[in-house]
Amino acid sequence: MAETGMLEVQDLHVYYGEIHALKGVSFRVAAGDIVTLLGNNGAGKTTTLKTVSGLLAARGGDVRLDGASLLGIASHDIVLRGITHVPEGRRIFNRLTVYENLEMGAYTRSDKGVAEDVERVFGIFPRLKERRTQVAGTLSGGEQQMLAIGRALMARPRLLLLDEPSMGLAPVLVEQIFETVQTINRQGVTILLVEQNASLALELADHAYLLETGYVVTSGSAKALADDPQIRRSYLGY
Q1: Angle CA(205)–CA(160)–CA(174) in degrees, nearest 5?
Q2: Residue-level pLDDT at 2
Q3: What is the pTM of this model?
Q4: 222 contacts 208 by C-beta, under 8 angstroms
Q5: Are strands 190-194 and 159-163 parallel, antiparallel or unpaired?
Q6: Spatial contact of 77 and 70, defined as CB atoms under 8 Å apart
Q7: Which of 4, 49, 77, 221 could cross-link 30 (Cys pair, CB 3.0–4.6 Å)?
Q8: For the segment 38-96, what is each residue's pLDDT rounded down to a tens digit?
Q9: Three-state SS for 204?
Q10: Residues 6+ apart with CB under 8 A from 48
Q11: Cα–Cα distance measured from residue 89 to residue 168, given in angstroms and rounded to the nearest whole number
């Protein structure tokens, strides 16, 4: 863990029409940490990430990055401030090549380091280098997840939001993706992770927050939550 004070979510309230999806969610992500949001479907995890990245508007509370509020700021400007979002379902550009998808990840940049960062992504994901000219829609699910993460890294984020990176992947690929997330974190990128595989998420993370129907009901170190008998029964299956 590095210095504190990166992301603070304070008493966040978010609605879908009349449905109150987040009901006062608060949590912190310290710079250098991996923090995971746990909970069943409908708990509010994806809604939280979308609100942090500016895809959803909050009706109450605040989202602050290094002390500055992000509310009301357009998503592309939030990217410029150092947050990128790998959405659930990957959302790659199916008709573009692998290389073109990575270039799209750098659309906010005008510096000369884009080509160098493409090579950095290829170093993290050698499979993408092998397929750099392949149309992205023809990649396997695991390769598409690699591409979605690689595309997000092209904006040089300080904070990476990951929504269900293991969804639909074979176990061997899940292990590979999580090892890569650790590598990215060790390279200085803070991670906010939503992941249905609670056991893996707690193994990876420094801190965890458990959401139920729009509320944070439990939080603490990932190890403490992994050792909690009730959480083990309800979310870890043992």
Answers
A1: 55
A2: 39
A3: 0.90
A4: yes
A5: parallel
A6: no
A7: 4
A8: 998 899 999 999 999 999 999 999 999 999 999 999 999 999 999 999 988 778 888 99
A9: helix
A10: 9, 12, 14, 22, 25, 37, 194, 211
A11: 9
CA distance 172 to 78: 34
Residue showing tokens 């990176």: 165
Give kind and range of the element (H or E) at residue 199: helix 198-204
What's the pLDDT at 4?
Answer: 47
- Spatial strand order of the sheet with 60-65 comes to 19-29, 7-16, 60-65, 68-69
The answer to whether the CB of 96 falls within 8 A of the CB of 172 is no
The residue with tokens 């950095």 is: 120
**pLDDT class of 237 with cuts at 50, 70, 90:** low
In a 13 Å sphere around the CA of 43, the CA atoms on its Cβ side amount to 19
- Report phi then psi at 2, rounded to 5: -95, -155
Distance CA 66, CA 8 (A): 8
Kindly list the structural domains of the chain, giving each domain's residue range(s) and its CATH number in brackets, ordered by start. Answer: 1-82+158-238 (3.40.50.300), 93-156 (no CATH)
CB-CB neighbours of 26 under 10 Å:
15
Count other Cβ atoms within 10 Å, centred on residue 59.
Answer: 10
Joined tokens for residue 63:
């989202």
